[in-house]
């Protein structure tokens, strides 16, 4: 059974960076793109971007360009997302979710979510 | 890329049917048959209910169906049950290997 397990909640000050990890198990890590999606408190889902664990290639929504970095370590089947220059409106639950193809938004397995709180 | 537009809320009584709309543009929903729908209960991760406009993953009841016309996709839930009460989000491929979610709809089962 495939599973995505994320790192624990984190609190950061404005201007800092946060790193969230997502460890995959139960499937071949390099067979699926890993996406990142966030949800601010009481708000909707927002797509951030993806990494191809096979090649390391990435793509993200325009609003996150220059602020988000996605990497992976295939030896431990783990994907990472770093969001820098944090603002208070970056406070959200961050999810990782896998997708099979580049164009089909079929998120068929999700992590449990990581709450990132940005506060001074 | 702007979020797809969904009604803030819809409601229905047990056994009835409800339809949730998701309006995009010719750059996303209007150009691709890659629309999916997610159900999210409070405090939980989303769960895919429909993909590729109208396909159901295994395990999803056939009470859930999807369709698309022009720039608008729709999710219909028939035979409403109490456990269907949740938030629902659409998601579309938006070109250049990017995705966009809808604003979300709260379904209340009366």
Kindly name the structural category of chain A.
mainly beta
Q: Please estimate the helix content of chain B.
A: under 10%
Alpha carbon gap, first and last residue of chain B: 35 Å
Indicate the mean pLDDT of chain B.
97
Tally of contiguous helical segments of chain A = 0
* Approximate shape of chain B: globular
Low-pLDDT regions of chain A: none
> The biggest beta sheet of chain B, please?
6 strands, mixed
Helix-strand pattern of chain B: EEEEEEEEE
SSE class of chain B: mainly beta
Please report which band the strand proportion of chain A falls in: under 5%, 5-15%, 15-25%, 25-35%, 35-45% or over 45%.
Answer: over 45%
Number of helices of chain B: 0
The general outline of chain A is: globular
Share of β-strand residues of chain B: 35-45%
Biggest interface goes to: A-B, 24 and 29 residues
Q: How would you classify the quaternary structure? A: heterodimer
- Give the C-alpha Rg of chain B: 13 Å
Please provide the ordered H/E string of secondary-structure elements of chain A: EEEEEEEEEEE
Description of the structure:
The complex is a heterodimer of chains A (120) and B (110). Chain A is mostly beta strands and 120 residues long. Chain A is 0% helix and 49% strand. Helix content of chain B is 0%, strand content 44%. Chains A and B meet through strand 5 of A and strand 3, strand 7 and strand 8 of B.
Task: Give the SSE layout.
The complex is a heterodimer of chains A (about 120) and B (about 110).
Chain A lengths: L2 E4 L3 E3 L5 E8 L7 E7 L5 E7 L6 E3 L7 E6 L4 E6 L8 E8 L9 E2 L3 E5 L2
Chain B lengths: L8 E4 L5 E6 L11 E6 L6 E4 L13 E6 L2 E6 L8 E8 L5 E3 L3 E5 L1
Parallel strand pairs in B: 1-9
Antiparallel strand pairs in B: 2-6, 3-4, 3-7, 5-6, 7-8, 7-9
């Amino acid at each position: 059974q495939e599973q995505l397990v994320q790192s624990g909640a984190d609190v950061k000050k404005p201007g800092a960076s946060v790193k969230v990890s997502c460890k995959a198990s139960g499937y071949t890590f390099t067979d699926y793109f890993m996406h990142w999606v966030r949800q601010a408190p009481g708000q909707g889902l927002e797509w951030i971007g993806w990494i191809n664990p096979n090649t390391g290639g990435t793509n993200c929504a325009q609003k996150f360009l220059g602020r988000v970095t996605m990497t992976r370590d295939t030896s431990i089947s783990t994907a990472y997302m770093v969001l820098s220059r944090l603002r208070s409106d970056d406070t959200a639950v961050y999810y990782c979710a896998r997708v099979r193809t580049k164009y089909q938004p079929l998120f068929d397995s999700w992590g449990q979510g990581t709450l990132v709180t940005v506060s001074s | 890329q702007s979020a797809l537009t969904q009604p803030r809320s819809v409601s229905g009584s047990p056994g009835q049917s409800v339809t949730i709309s998701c309006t995009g543009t010719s750059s996303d929903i209007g150009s691709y048959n890659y629309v999916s729908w997610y159900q999210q209960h409070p405090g939980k991760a989303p769960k895919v209910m429909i993909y590729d406009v109208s396909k159901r993953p295994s395990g999803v009841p056939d009470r859930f169906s999807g369709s698309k016309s022009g720039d608008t996709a729709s999710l219909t839930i028939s035979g409403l049950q109490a456990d269907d009460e949740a938030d629902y989000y659409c998601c579309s491929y938006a070109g250049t290997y990017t995705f966009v979610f809808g604003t979300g709809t709260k379904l209340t089962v009366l």
